[in-house]
Amino acid sequence: MPKISRIEPIVPAIKPLKKVAAYARVSMQSERMMHSLSAQISYYSKIIQKNPDWEYAGVYADDFISGTNTVKRDEFKQMLSDCEAGKIDIILTKSISRFARNTVDLLETVRHLKSLGIEVRFEKENINSMSGDGELMLSILASFAQEESRSISENIRWATKNRFEQGIPNGKFRIFGYRWEEDQLVIEPEEAEIVKRIFQNFLDGKSRLETEKEFAAEGITTANGCRWVDSNIKVVLTNITYTGNLLLQKEFIEDPITKHRKKNRGEMPQYFVENTHEPIIDMETFQYVQDEIARRKELGALANKSLNTCCFTGKIKCPHCGVSYMHNKRTDRGGCLEFWSCGSSKKKGGHCEIGGSINHENLKKACAEVLGMAEFDGALFRKTVDYISVLTDKDLEIHKNDGTVTAAVYAPPAPKRLPRTEEQKAHMRSLMKAKWTPERKAEMSERMKQMRKERGENWRKEK
């Protein structure tokens, strides 16, 4: 009988395509740089799509963003997210400096991608992150890129300083109340009236909070259409530009790698340029406002008449949280209950180790006793006491202006209990006895047994 053999069909193995993406970045906003970015995107799109072994996974591009860190590089972060989701196998990029100028960020990112099995190819340096000497070469060249960035930053700082010395501002900054016409600041009449009103409100004794509420009620907004708030009202009140003069180098970049901006408090020279544009506020008024701001800052919360202040305001300190206690009022059974609690309780997620509150009237009694007063005198208290330190929910320390410290015990108010007659007590007992019948007790017992069974050993913790 003839021998018959079955020949299985051979299915050719199809090599899976590599998912390839590219990353491009430019950091200078100009027509030339825009062309450079579009050219990079077009270039990498063609390269990826021409390769028969590759699958196009997109080109990620950040424009006008520094490479010294990844915080503001949204496309870069999206690319990393897609890598972690398994959407990318290979990343192409022009050079190390396009990918990152910060050595630490570069190596951490490349190592993370390597752990995911993703290689990064740097075209200019001809480096593959998966090769044996890839990380060594990256470390060396990235250090050069970082120093190049630092050198560029130093050159920019020198050029900026040179412009400041000539009285030339560093670019056309935005300021409410003015607009730029070529190289000159020109008053914007409607906005200038709002600036004048902010200063006049302050001169009339109004707090920034009162101005904020006033503007909100009238629908007055900032140049961006946003609500005026305390912080930007303060910026207006302290900006010397409104006097027709310029103060240059109010801030400076502390580190070229982190790009952290710092307020200039004497670390760098400043340049005062007089009579550069038309003033909205005269210098005498502006200086008076600065002196008044300093005076109100010294007074603290007492300077703000819109707050609920009294003799204890700013005087009760929490040593655990480092903040002052706040004055609160609450209606309690027809009366008004005043008490003080740690300011950290007002903050989101805030917690104080001491906790609880201090009754206003009992605090007055404790202070009167320490100061030897027959009756508490708020004016004398402020004149004599520097601050009160809250140690526990019962123990206080009163620090006087002469440097002496006296311990005081705060007595919490006794809880208010309405007196009950014997008839009322007997009535309540009869009600409870009628409610808790043997059937009800058995029902509750079974319910508790079921709860313990469902929750297991941790049932007490979950109660």
CATH homologous superfamily annotation of the largest domain? Resolvase, N-terminal catalytic domain
Radius of gyration: 35 Å
Query: What portion of the residues fall into strands of 2 or more residues?
Result: 15-25%
- Structural category is alpha/beta
Topology summary:
Elements: E1 18-26, H1 31-50, E2 54-63, H2 74-84, E3 90-93, H3 96-99, H4 103-115, E4 119-122, E5 127-128, H5 134-165, E6 178-181, E7 184-187, H6 189-203, H7 208-218, H8 230-237, E8 246-248, E9 251-253, E10 261-263, E11 271-273, H9 283-299, E12 316-317, E13 325-332, E14 335-342, E15 358-359, H10 360-370, H11 378-384, E16 385-390, E17 395-400, E18 405-409, H12 422-435, H13 438-455
Helix pairs in contact: 4-5
Describe this structure in words.
The strands form six sheets. Strands 2-1-3-4-5 form a five-stranded mixed β-sheet, sandwiched between helices. It is of the alpha/beta class and 463 residues long. The protein has four domains: 18-150, Resolvase, N-terminal catalytic domain (Rossmann fold), CATH 3.40.50; 178-301, Alpha-Beta Complex (Hect, E3 ligase catalytic domain fold); 316-409, no CATH class; 422-456. The protein has 13 helices and 18 strands. Helix 4 runs antiparallel to helix 5.
